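Researcher: Go.
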Amino acid sequence: MTIINNSKTDPNKILPMTYMWAREHYKTGVANNWTPEEVSMQKDVEQWKSDNVLSEEEKKMIMWNLGFFSTAESLTANNIVLAVYNHITNPECRQYLLRQAYEEAVHTDTFIYCCDTLGLDPEEVFNMYKTIPKIKEKDDFVVNLTQIVFDPNFKTDTKENIQKFLQDLIGFYVIMEGIYFYAGFAMMLALKRQNKMIGIGEQFEYIMRDESVHLAFGCDLINTIKTENPEVWTEDFQKESIRLIKESVELEKEYALNACPNGIVGINANQFVEYVEYIADRRLERIDLPKQYNTENPFPWMSQSTDLSKEKNFFETRVTEYQTAGNLDWEK
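Model: Structure:
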């Protein structure tokens, strides 16, 4: 029994389990359960409507991130349901994929909640992937990278097709969720550190907490497929994967510089660029590829918030279990 190329329609014979890491990610996801309505946004509404709390650039940055994430979460959910679930036939992995699909729905609901609460035009927010070039470029890059696996006749029955499927997994787990999301996370949490839009910032922390589990699962998935199909992890495929990741980093840098060109109090725009490089190196190492940037982390405070602590949990330490969204304490 392997992680791909088993029956897609047999009963879900989840016991005995083969990949205990998938089970652990599922259990962590359940323990992390939250909903956006648990977070109060009263102060956010007051700040958003005030004329002297948020600058026009800060409002633009918030809108861009709401616009990007609202469609990126939907694209990711579609990929899970329509592509990844179809080809990953192991039952405990499928159980986690169902959990992840639910979390993507919660994330999409978060942006609906933000739009409704702040009185934003949903057409404007949810169509920014069409109207804002820097958002469209990122979405188009991942979609074009992965669309072949949506072909109903596609099968992971050859070396070349397994490589194409791996490219899809790298596209969504490493690039979309592991790199593209992180400049936006840093911007929103940097704003929260200034006591601005704390409700939205808290929701982004919870989304980031979920995404770190998605990323850990995706990297474990990629590494397992590599281990079980060593013939696909060729030197040429590794070089192409690095090239695609580096191209995605350039797109994310451009997004960061356009979304927040003058930075936020205490943070200049180039630091967001450095953070993207730092995160990209982390992602490359996680799937056994060499670092490309060797950039220091410009935001050490991020490790105290969500992603970096969360990643450290999976690869180096463990998390204190909790069942309420308000608890973000980590056991080192």
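Model: The chain has 13 helices and no strands.
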